[in-house]
Records
---
Amino acid sequence: MTQNTASTSDHIQRVAIFTGSSMGANASFREGASAMASHLAASKIGVVYGGGHVGLMGVVADAALAAGGEVFGVIPDPLVSGEVAHTGLTSLEIVSDIHARKKRMAELSDAFIAFPGGVGTLEELFEAWAWQQMGIHQKPVALYDIDGYWQPLLRALDDMASHGFISKFTRSALIVHDDPQELLAAVRTWTPTVR
């Protein structure tokens, strides 16, 4: 990830989306992902994502493109066939590995939003959030809480905070919303908190 020294986040041009290469068990995940991607496109905000055409990744890309948005994919070469690289994007970059993918997505993005997903989504989310905590970047990090998907994780994070492993400063920096408009508004108005 690259350092962003901007003091505010009101000029969001592109958002990195972390989400699953699976659809998930509930139709609400697909509907929510499509709604958020469409809202980003309508708001003239580009989508940066993992470059696949499958699962919620594909839903996000297709919905943003259908709404007239720009979509930038970044996919590791070993996953081009496994995740079925999306060939209809504004831009598709093929990189060497997962680490290069995350670095490039961070370079292209002004904010990070985690949609429902699995282990890979969690790994991307926690790296972006940890790097924010360490001051490596000053970009907003958010959870899109479709159908309460992130509530168990949020309870675990609150428990970690109560045990003294996550500071109030760090916990309060994580944006959480279940509504696309409210989430984007919070991302746009987020400012880094001075420790």
Note: The beta strands are 14-18, 46-49, 71-76, 91-95, 111-114, 141-144, 174-177.
---
Amino acid sequence: MTRDLAPITRIPRTGLPPHAVVVGDPARAAFVAALLDGAEEVSHHREYRVFRGSWKGLPVLVGSHGVGAPGAVLLFQELADAGVHTFLRFGTAGAMRSGIRDGDLVIAEAAVRDDGVTQQLVPPEYPAVAAPEAVLALQRAAREQGAAHHRGIVWTRAAFQPGLIPLTWYDGAGLAAIEMELSGLYVTASLRGLTAGGVLVIDGVNADELVDEAATGGYDPHRDIVATGMERGGVVALEALRLLAEGDAR
């Protein structure tokens, strides 16, 4: 019956695993789900594609939220309503700090709230921060997988393509990467008492270089080095969920 489904994402209101990996691309949700034992598709409505299965005995949900924080927050909220309490976002990002290369992982300790939605939910002074245990679990999982990784603050920005406003304020701010949804997850999690973290695969150059595609050869996330990073990142996210569930994040 339709009353048993959430109104926007059309996910079941009950019976979902409490630990989730959330991604942007529905195809990436299928990619991560393929790593699970006994994976099955639960629902697929609009950009929201949801699977469940198990990772080393832990029941896990994998769901896609599409591009941009406003739509992503809808998934986070409806998953939380359905009983999900631990979220790890597994996505892609552009590097913004020297020494971070394509295919590397960035573990996001916090996010700049330039996401286009949380400004309408809480005051600007409210932080967007990961759960410390989620950061530690992701870091441990990355080390165990031998994945090149970095920790830092990321910039969640609503606009993907540059416009007339120069992207220069971040100079000297030490930001690690730029992406589009993570601050929405962190604010939602803090407001609702949930556990959240994020690991991002670097798939391109930094924000100011995107303005000059002639100088960079253009943005192309569909390269072998990025695919390798995605393979490692998927395992890191799932293994970090297991560590969190077992209370062994250090």
Note: Residues 2-246 form a domain with the Rossmann fold fold (CATH 3.40.50.1580).
---
Amino acid sequence: MIFDKKGTTTTVFQENIALPMFLDNLNKKYPDIKNDHLIINLFSFSKLNAGDVLEFLQLSNTHRNAKKSFVLVTNKVSYDDVPEEICVVPTLQEARDIIEMEEIERDLGL
């Protein structure tokens, strides 16, 4: 697992491991990154479906309840295929844009 921290945002990349192991490692490392906005880069997973993305729902809800952004990045699953509670975008730039917009919303109290 690779962490790339820039300011208050940490991007998490996975090395060649299976999704369940990646999730387990992410949950173990979560206390170290829980105060950052998180971008979870899932591009290295060759096969990914909406059910796989839903595995991140609990962690996403926990993170968002702490007033931090949590964005999954993959072009294999459309945001239309997952519940509104989980944020999925197809590019890293869109993930950064989402975090910026959410920070503005939080600053405005929306």
Note: The longest helix spans residues 92-108.
